[in-house]
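Input (structure):
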């Protein structure tokens, strides 16, 4: 810890927290295109999983095949 930080601990901590918050905001800001891409992929995966579960329920797919193929 520098001498300045020791003398002005509260201000030092506030600056450090502000910097950390700024970094977090940058990391959490999402590119709209990337978000849309991920949402489409999740929707596709949801459809595939529902179809596989239906096949499992209709006994067109064994439980072992379901687990091995989808997990």
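Output (sequence):
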């Amino acid at each position: 810890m520098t001498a300045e930080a020791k003398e002005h601990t509260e201000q030092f901590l506030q600056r450090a927290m502000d910097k950390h918050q700024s970094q977090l905001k940058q990391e959490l800001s999402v590119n709209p295109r990337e978000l849309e891409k991920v949402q489409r992929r999740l929707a596709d995966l949801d459809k595939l999983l529902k179809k596989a579960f239906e096949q499992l329920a209709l006994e067109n797919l064994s439980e072992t095949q379901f687990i091995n193929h989808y997990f």
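Notes: The mean pLDDT is 78. The chain has four helices and no strands.
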